[in-house]
Amino acid sequence: MTEEKPFLLMISGWGYPPPIWDPLVHQAAPVCDLRVIDPLPLLNSSGDGLAANAVDQIFHHLPEDRACYAGGWSLGGMIAMQIARHLRPRSLGLLLISATDRFCSDETRRWGTPVVELRAMRRNMRRDPEQTLRDFLRQSAFPHERTEAPWVEVLVRDADRLDAGLRYLDVTDLRHQDCSLDQPVAFLHGRKDAVVPHTASRSMAARIMPSRLDMIEDVGHELPFQRGDAVLHAVRMLAGMSG
Questions:
Q1: pLDDT tens digits for 186-211?
Q2: Distance (Å, rounded) from C-alpha 155 to C-alpha 158?
Q3: Where would you tag: which of 21, 42, 101, 177 has the fewest CB atoms within 10 A of its CB?
Q4: Spatial contact of 98 and 169, defined as CB atoms under 8 Å apart
């Protein structure tokens, strides 16, 4: 009898609805059953914290009869870290892609997006949400180009939810969270990430144990869509860490 494939639940990032992951979901099929969910319903309406039922929403997707892993990309990675303790023992490990424990820079952190820039982005979202979102997607694709993003017109119809996601990135600070997430963590980051500097994953991997960090050359924030092979390699490594 062949061993059943593990189940991986990933929380997507801001501006990238789950269907964008479909090519990677198909690519991952020989390695794991990958399911991707939208991060925005996991936030409360103002974006200053998680929804009251966020953990229940996650558990709803995790099967009870097989090995499960959880994780997130970018904004989704922050959410995954925030609720990691609640996921044990159903989750055997975390996969964090292009993640950070604090999105914005401040007087104690040199890397990250300045708060003033993020708040300017929120103002621009209210004035011209479509153009603001397209500008962000181009930055995410760097050093490659993103010439098409057909999902933008759908996303901007719910600008309040997008704003809640930006608010979460503004106020959430997980730096003082206990270094132990109670499960192995695999970090994956693009060295040319122009949205979340790779120093974020390097810093977290140095203080969170057990963990593993893979840095991917010549790729930016859109790592899951540009280097699906690296994501699948990280899944295999995570399974080995928790085995």
A1: 999 999 999 999 999 999 999 888 99
A2: 6
A3: 177
A4: no
